[in-house]
Automatic annotation (TrEMBL):
Organism: Daejeonella lutea
Protein name listed in UniProt: DNA-binding response regulator, OmpR family, contains REC and winged-helix (WHTH) domain
Key words, A-Z: DNA-binding, Phosphoprotein, Transcription, Transcription regulation, Two-component regulatory system
Known DNA-binding region: 124-223
Boundaries of every Response regulatory domain copy: 2-116
SMART domains found in the cross-reference section: REC, Trans_reg_C
Positions bearing 4-aspartylphosphate: D51
Domain of life: Bacteria
GO cellular component: cytosol; protein-DNA complex
Cross-referenced InterPro entries: CheY-like_superfamily, OmpR/PhoB-type_DNA-bd, Sig_transdc_resp-reg_C-effctor, Sig_transdc_resp-reg_receiver, WalR-like, WH-like_DNA-bd_sf
GO molecular function terms attached to this record: phosphorelay response regulator activity; transcription cis-regulatory region binding
Length: 223
């Protein structure tokens, strides 16, 4: 998953980032309102962890911006504000969940999974596309019922394309989705071609059709 951690407390932000990264996720971070605004305006995330009290602005204004722009990022509010009125306001503005500080990181991760599952898979752990079956929680892919083994990056990339089937995905967008901020340091996105080549081979070797289409000068489409 690609996640954005918006939290002004450096130690908590670092702890969350380390935990979620160790679980195999891509984590971008923002410690103030302006930095967070820039990231959510440009990028898309599976889930945004949103603190409310931020230097330079109010977290709920970021939530208002997201929903006004009809962006589909999941939003999990993490806040020390535990009044029922605050929770109702956050949820009514379009947040998917509200977690009061302090919390266990394991609970946070479970909440993130629930948000992403509800939004992307409509509550279902399994995504099916013709002969391909993806178990999002087990991180397992089957073709005609037989498990095909992928690296974590390959799994994330295939899930990204299947979840956005029939849409043209640029190499840059694919890179940012699975590498986050680190994608900007690459001289080129040729490694995306390499990953897709490997995914194609594993799928076709398992008897799957080749659903990847190259879009000249742009990227790829899965359909």
């Amino acid at each position: 998953m690609k996640l954005l951690i918006i939290e002004d407390e450096a130690s908590l932000r670092s702890s969350i980032q380390k935990y979620l990264t160790a679980e195999g996720n891509v984590c971008d971070i923002a410690g103030n309102f302006d930095n967070a605004y820039q990231k959510i305006a440009i990028y898309e995330y599976d889930c945004i962890l949103l603190d409310l009290g931020l230097p330079g602005g109010e977290g709920l204004d970021l939530l208002r911006f997201l929903r006004k722009e009809q962006k589909e990022d999941g939003v999990l509010i993490i806040s020390a504000r535990d009044s029922i009125e605050q929770k109702i306001e956050g949820l009514s503005l379009g947040a998917d969940d509200y977690l009061v500080k302090p919390f266990h990181l394991s609970e946070l991760y479970a909440r993130i999974h629930a948000v992403v599952r509800r939004r992307q898979q409509k509550g279902n752990n399994i995504i099916s596309f013709n002969e391909i079956e993806i178990d999002v929680l087990a991180k397992e892919i089957k073709v005609y019922g037989v498990t095909v083994y992928f690296t974590r990056k390959e799994f994330d990339l295939l899930l990204y394309f299947v979840s956005n089937k029939s849409k043209v995905i640029s190499k840059a967008a694919a890179a940012v989705h699975i590498w986050g901020d680190n994608a900007d340091m690459a001289d080129s996105f040729d490694y995306i071609y390499t990953h897709i080549k490997n995914i194609r081979k594993k799928l076709t070797d398992a008897g799957c059709r080749d659903y990847f289409q190259s879009v000249y000068g742009v990227g790829y489409k899965f359909q």
